[in-house]
Structure formats: structure tokens, C-alpha cells
Amino acid sequence: MTENSKNLIKKTILYDNHIRLGAKMINYSGFYMPLQYTSSITEHMSVRNHAGIFDVSHMGKFILKGEHSVDLIQYLTTNDLYKIKIGQAQYTCLINDKGGIIDDLVVYKISEKKFLLIVNAINIEKNKKWINDHIKKYEYFDIELIDTSLEYSLLAIQGPLSLYYTQKLTNISLNKISFYHFEIGKFSGVKDVLISRTGYTGSKGIEIYVSNDNAEKIWKDILDVDKHKIIPCGIASRNSLRLEMGYRLYGQDLSEKITPIEANLAWIIKFEKEFIAKKILQRQKKEGKYKKFVSFIVEEKNKVPRQGHLLIDEKETTIGYVTSGVYSPVLQKSIGLGYFLINQKKISSVFLFIRKKKVPIKIVKLPFIRIQN
What is the CB neighbour count within 10 angstroms for residue 126? Predict the structure, then answer.
């Protein structure tokens, strides 16, 4: 890595806090991000048993507003925005004109004419261009896309005790906020904070959208509530937590060469509305000719699947590939996600091919674990 390339890596407003806490920092999606502070397993289990806080300020944050903003989102994404009310959020995906996934994102309905879009950091510029190109193409002169990615921070507090701890910092009744709903109010003495019952871990939690000016105060106040029960967590544990739930990661499990049908995300496709590449996805679903998303548990110990590993049959014929894999601290087994090359309905035995060795795996349904929040 050259000095010039190093200078291109961005820092979140909490960078110095991570360094003081002893975090191991890495380049992740163009940002210096904490990989871990203590150990990924310690942080993982803290989220499953108590609570943890993540700095996910690298995520893209767009404001889309205007009279026809809802029409544009409806056309460019697969889910149906008319099904949610003000104060609700919706998981969806942007697709290209061939049905491939440009990005998966969460849309927050602030008002009938104003929306917050949380997008993946790696796709910020691509998404911005895609949306702006369509604003110009269809002459939506009343729509404005504002990129606030570097002006606002995003904190995720996750775990079964996360609401208990953070409730001490706000008068908003957090338990009354339903899953995938949000409220805007005062948190830790800061006004106009968006508090959302969302997350990427599967455990109970909230995500907080706040201006950079107040992010450090809120980060410290949350940690000060109980330094033994709520700890800072890095992207290593965030990855293992999301994999236990089977949540997809863009750039690994999702890409522009994969459609939401292939990714087993048909539940966020609403064919009753009009959207880009609708006919292509309808045809793909009807014909059934597409690669198939799979989730699996590795039968042998100390064999961790990694992106790019092959899936083979008994005759060692390649039938698929791995997109994500990790050791699950809860199951104490390795788990993985991937794709079969075709939509195979009956496969007797599947193996993971690691170091020229066939490792037996068990195809299972998601999520890998069940959580009682």
C-alpha cells in the first residue's frame, strides 16, 4: 500500500476513541474500522448475552426528498414502500436493468416526501450515481438527493440488555418502538436523534443516527452506563453475528450478478407493483433456472469455509461455491453461505473442498440459531 492510497482511507469521527480503547484497525470498505478490541469471540458472546456497541458510521446515509421521491424509490427498488407508514423502516434492494442487486439497503420513512436511505459503504458513489441518473432521466426536478454520509454517524447497540442500558439515556420508551420502526427525539441530552429498532446481529437492539458533532458524547455515555456489561465491538464479531442469522453481506453474498430471487430474498420482491427489471425477475422465478442460495454447517471441527471455496458432490464435481463462512461461537461449529450453480432440488451429499480434501457439510435452513429476545 502506497502513502497516497493510505491517505484515501477515510476515518469515522470515532477513530481516536477506537485507538484509545486498543482496537485493532483495518481498512474496511475504504474506512479505518475496528476489527476487534479484545477478541471477536468475547465481543460476539457479549452481544448474545448482554450488550455491545458498534461504530457503523462507514455506512452511507442519503436523504431523498421531494414530491415524487416515493415514486422513484418504488421504481428502483423491489419492496413496496406504500406498505409502510411514517416512522417505519423497510429492508429492500436496488436492482439494475437486468435484475442484479446494485445494493441492499434500509429505507426510513421520515415523512410522505422525505426518506432516509442507509446503504453499504462500498456502494455509496455507485448508488448516488444510479439514483441521480434516474432523477435526470425521468425529469424528477422536484427530487433532491443529499449525501450526508460524512456528516452523520451511525451507532448500533445490540444485545438482549441493550434497551435496558440505553433506556437510561432517553425519555423515549424504547420497548414500545416496534421492530423496524423508529422515533426521533432526545438521547443522552442530544436533540433530534433518530432511534431505530433495527440491527445486523439478530439480537435485540437499536441503531442511532446522529450528527458527527454529538457522536462522541453519545458513544462515551453509552459505554459509561455499564462498562462491564456493554462493550465496544468490531466488525469481526459483527460478521460472525450476522452469519449466525444468515444475513447477506454485499460484495460477498450479494452482487450485481446475483438477483434477489437467487439470493433467496424473494420476500422483498413485490410483483404487484411496477419496478425496474420486473419482467426479468418474473420470468426467472417462473422458469426456475437460476443458481440457488444455500446455507450449511460444517461437520468436521477446525474446518472454516471461506469465500471462494468450492462445493462439490461425491464425484468431486463442482456444484457450487462459498460466499461467506465463519466459526459460530454459539454453535461451536463452522457455518457458511454460498450458491449452487443451478437450482438443484435433490442433492444427496455435498462437500466443502478445502486443501484438496472433501469435508462433509449439512445443508440447513436459516437462521442457524434461534434467539429469544
Answer: 16
